Amino acid sequence: MDELNFAADFPTPTREQWLTLVEGVLKGADFRKKLVARTHDGLEIQPLYPKAENASRIVRAESGPWRVSQRVDHPEPAKANELALLDLEGGADALTLVTRKAPAARGFGVRVDSVEDLDRALSGVMLDLIHLRLDAGGKGREMAGMLVELAERRGHDLSALSLDLGMDPVGALAALGRLSVSWDEAARRMGSVLGDLAQRGFSGRAFLADGRPYHEAGAGEAQELAAVLATGVADLRALEANGHTLEAARDALAFLLVADADEFLTVAKFRALRRLWAQVEQASGLTPKPIRLHAETAWRMTTRRDPWVNMLRTTIATFSAGIGGADAVTVLPFTAALGLTDPFARRVARNTQLILLEEANLWRVADPAAGAGGFEALTDALCEKAWALFQEIEREGGIVESLARGALQQRIAATRAQREKAVATRREPITGTSEFPNIREADVTVLSPLPASPLRRDEEQEDAALRIEPLPSTRTAEPFERLRDLSDAHLARTGARPKVFLANLGPAAAFTARATFAKNFFEAAGVEAVTNEGFSDQDKLRQAFVESKAKLSCICSTDEIYVMHASETAETLRDSGSGPIYLAGRPGESEEQLTRSGVSTFIYAGCDTLKVLSEALEAACD
Q1: Which domains does the chain have, with CATH numbers?
Q2: I need a surface site. Which of 191, 350, 414, 612 has the fewest CB within 10 A?
Q3: Rounded to a whole number, what is the distance in angstroms from the first to the last CA of the chain?
Q4: Each residue of 380-430: pLDDT tens digit?
C-alpha cells in the first residue's frame, strides 16, 4: 500500500510567515526579550531553528556504547575494593579511582600511600578487562607511578591496558592554588614521565585536560571549553619542549567535560570540544584524530535538600553526555553532596547509565544530534565563542600565566555572579530547593557525612613554587541550603519551625495561585506556611493569625481584592502583633497606601528571593 504524504499537499511555511504570526501573539512586545534566551556566555538561544544543512558528524575513537564508569572513593582500600567489585559485577565496565586529597574527593578518597594499598583497593579487579581512570589531583604523578608499577607486578602488558593516568598539573593549580615546583619544572617532569612510560610500553593517556575546576567555579560552557583547550595546548607545548613529538604528545592527552542538567548546552558543549580540538590539531600541523572524552555529572548542580531530584538531574546529564559523544561517563551518586555514598546510591548512579544504554539504546545511533538545527546552531556558536576566549587566554601568555595573573579567575567570577543573581531571583529555579521545597523530607543514608570543609586547600603551609588564587568549588543551591540549615537549627532549639501565616482573602479561586506561590516561596527557607480556606471577616482572620503563633504574615489574593481589602488586612495583622507583613504580587499603583498600612515587602516572580528570605528568616527566628 502506498504511503500517503499529506504534508506534500501544503506549502512549506517560511520563517517570515512564522514571525508574522508570532508578532500577532506578542501584541507589540519585543520578540528578542520575550522569546530569545541567553546563556551566561552571552549566546542567544532562539525559540525555533531550521534544519541544519551540510552538518558534519562527530566521530568517537571507538563505536558502540560509552563506558559506564563508577567512582571509587571510600577512604579504606579494602572497603573501596568491595564497593568497586559490586559495581563491576552490577554492570560497570570502568572505574574512576579518586584518591585522598584530590579536589574531587570532597574530603574522602582512597588512602593510597603505597603500591600495596593500591593493590588492596584493586584486588580482584582485572585491569585488562576494564577501563581505569586515576583522579589524584596534585598527587597525579605519584599515583600514576604506583598504578603502572602495580600493573607490571601483575604481569600485564601496559600497551594492552585501557588506562587514563589523569595527570593534570594545570587543573591541580587551578583547583588548589599551588604547584610544588615552577611550571617549567612541572613541564620537564611531564616530559620525563612520558618518556619513562613510553619505554615501559605504556600507550594509554597519561595527561588530562579537565574542565571541572572551571565548571565548579561557575564558568559558562564556552569558558569551560576555552580553559580545557588552553590546558591541552599547554600540555602539548610542555611535552614538545621536553623531547616529544607533537604526535606523541597529542596521543598522551585525554579530556574531561562536565555534564549538567541543561540538555541542549551539554550536548552542544561535548560536540564542540571535538571540533575545537581538531582545529588545534590542524593549526599544529597534525592530522586530527578522535579524542578520548570523559564526562562527569556536575557537582555544581547537586543539592543536599530533596536529594532525590538529583536522580533526574544526573539522568538528563548522562543522556546529554552520551548523545554528545562522551567515551566514558561517571555519574555522581544522588547523595554525593551529603557525604560518602552507600551501595544503594552507587547502584542508582550505575543503573542510570545502564538503563539509558540497554533499555533506551542511546548508543545505537552515532551522533544523533547531527543535522538538528538547534544542536548544530548551539555547537557552532559555542565553537566560535570558546575559540575567541581561548585566544584571549593565549594572548595572556597561556593558561598558567592567565591563572597566575588572576585574569581567568576574574572572568569566571563575573559569570558566577550572573549565575548567583539568577539563582537568587529564581530565574534559574532549583527544584526541591528554591522551587517546590519539601520541608518534611525524609532523611537519606550515607556512609559518612560530608566534612564541614572538604579538603581543597588542605596543604596550605606546604612549600609551593607557584601560588595563585584558587578557583572556588561551589554548588548553586548552597545559599538556599544555608537558610534551610538555620530553620533546622530553630526546629531543634524550639521544637517548631519558624512560621508565616497566609492571610488568604476571598474564595479559593481568588487566593489559591498566590497562596501556592507564597508557600513555595517561604518554605524554600524552611519557613513553614500556615494556610487556610480564606477569610472575608477580619475578626476571624485576626483570631486565626493569633492561633497560628506565626511571627510573619503574607496577604494572598487577586489584585481586585487587594484594592478593596489589602490595606485593612495589613492593619489587622499589624495590630494583632505580626512582624514583617508581606503581600504576594507586585505593588502596582497601591504601593504607597499598602506600605502605610503595614506591608513591608512585596514578593513576586523575579524579586530577590534570597534577600527577602534571609530577612524573613531572621525576623521569624528572632
Answers
A1: 7-42 (no CATH), 67-421 (3.20.20.240), 481-620 (3.40.50.280)
A2: 414
A3: 77
A4: 999 999 999 999 999 999 999 999 999 999 999 999 999 999 999 999 999
